[in-house]
Specification:
This protein is α+β, with helices and mostly antiparallel strands and 369 residues long. The chain has helices at 2-10, 44-51, 54-58, 84-93, 105-111, 134-147, 190-197, 263-276, 325-336, 343-347, 352-355, and strands spanning 17-19, 36-37, 70-72, 75-79, 100-104, 122-126, 130-132, 151-153, 160-164, 167-171, 176-179, 182-184, 205-215, 227-230, 236-240, 243-247, 252-253, 286-294, 301-304, 311-315. Helices cover 26% and strands 25% of the residues. Bound molecules: flavin-adenine dinucleotide.
Length: 369
């Protein structure tokens, strides 16, 4: 999503090539998300970039896609009576987000009849949270890239990166590409790509997250349910057509790889869901895992490398890289083109220092989340 979105932004004014090691774009984290849009998730930079992406997602440019990118969902964050104070703090922190309100046990019961009374005393409902059509968004970026003469090279693992004069040269097994600017949008592999170019690492930590798909009880009308998660973020559940998407909200550090679900995480997920919901999971239809990649302070890394001319970072999108892609890629393209921070993003309070790779340079003091 990172590579496709920034390539789309740049393609009308530049010659752009996206280089992807897999045969299928989106094979890794982008194709494994929970596809949720929420303005109450993640660090402030990501929440800002997410809310600034909403307009694009609601009204994409003409010809971008042939179906809506967002659809109604809502998110319910619930808790027990004992944890109500923490819930109230969360509600206070997000009072300015539109569509946020507190719901009591009776309303929770009406919204999600299967949630157990003892688990859900009160909750925060984010009515304006949405489902994202990730495939349509990703395809829209790649289609627009091609329309502007850009190219997508699949099955092209970047093995070597050299700099000669003012140009970078990327070597794959059977291709050589030359450009004055390289954008490192390699997700979990971003530090490895940096090392190939001779750049210092920013400390990307890929964290595995598991998804389990189970059939929904046949007698329940679940399509209007919101996505549901507990206040302490130990699991979430989202209705899909006739199914539930579940996750134990795991965050296990991992090397960059083709992540696979671990049996223990799947079992933990089902146990937590069965404790909170009046529901027996008898069959698993599918499961997968993906890597959410973070740097220490949880903000994205977007900017030119402090040491290497023409080497641009677009990494560390964590668990928010789909919902924030339109605004983050717009910021990246603006910086790459030398136009500085876009006014709406600056007016929203984001500073370049917060996202710059410079914050990881020796001597800089990056804050941890
Ligand atoms: C379970 C789960 C749930 C999530 N839910 C949400 C959600 O609800 N909402 C949301 O906004 N976000 C969500 N996310 C996060 C979101 O999916 C990511 O932030 C986003 O997909 C990151 O995109 P990316 O392009 O940086 O990474 P990737 O999609 O992993 O892309 C990086 C690409 O770089 C390529 N690459 C690596 N090395 C090389 C090389 N040497 N040569 C060529 N190519 C290379 C890889 O093949 C890969 O395709 C979720 C993630 C997971 C795992």
């Amino acid at each position: 999503m990172a590579g496709a979105s920034v390539a789309w932004q740049l393609a009308p004014d530049a010659s752009v090539a996206v280089v992807e090691m897999e045969d299928q774009p989106g094979y890794h984290t982008t194709g494994r998300s929970a596809a949720i849009y929420t303005e109450t998730y993640g660090p402030p930079t990501m929440r800002l970039l997410t809310s600034l992406s909403r307009e694009f997602l609601e009204n994409p440019p003409g010809g971008f896609c042939d179906r809506p990118l967002l659809s109604r969902r809502g998110i319910l964050t619930f808790t027990t009576e004992a944890r109500e104070e923490k819930l109230d703090k969360l509600l206070a922190a997000f009072h300015s987000v539109s569509g946020i309100r507190k719901v009591d046990r009776a309303e929770i019961k009406a919204l999600v009849p299967l949630l157990r009374d003892e688990a859900a005393f009160a909750g925060m409902l984010e009515e304006n949270a949405r489902d994202i059509d990730v495939h349509a968004l990703h395809r829209g970026f790649l289609r627009g890239l091609r329309r502007h003469g850009g190219t997508l090279h699949t099955g092209a693992r970047v093995e070597r990166i050299d700099r000669t004069g003012a140009l970078w040269t990327l070597h794959t097994a059977d291709r050589v590409l030359t450009a004055p600017i390289v954008v490192n949008a390699a997700g979990a592999w971003a530090d490895l790509i940096a090392a190939k170019a001779g750049a210092a690492k920013v400390g990307i930590v890929p964290k595995r997250r598991t998804v389990v798909i189970v059939p929904a009880p046949p007698d329940r009308k679940i399509s209007a349910w919101p996505a549901i998660g507990d206040l302490d973020d130990t699991f979430y559940l989202k209705p899909e057509t006739g199914r539930f998407l579940l996750s134990p909200a795991d965050e296990t550090p991992s090397a960059p790889c083709d992540a696979q679900p671990e049996e223990l995480d799947v079992a933990t997920c089902i146990d937590r869901v069965e404790k909170a919901f009046d529901m027996d999971v008898r069959r698993i239809e599918n499961s997968w895992a993906g890597l959410r990649s973070f740097v220490a302070d949880g903000a994205p890394v977007c900017g030119f490398d402090p040491q290497l001319e023409g080497f641009f970072w677009l990494a560390g999108q964590g668990g928010y890289g789909i919902q924030s892609a339109p605004a983050l890629s717009r910021l990246a393209a603006s910086l790459i083109s030398g136009c500085g921070i876009s006014p709406d993003i600056g007016d929203g309070g984001l500073t370049l220092e917060e996202v710059s790779p410079m914050r990881f340079a020796p001597g800089a003091t990056a804050q941890t989340d």
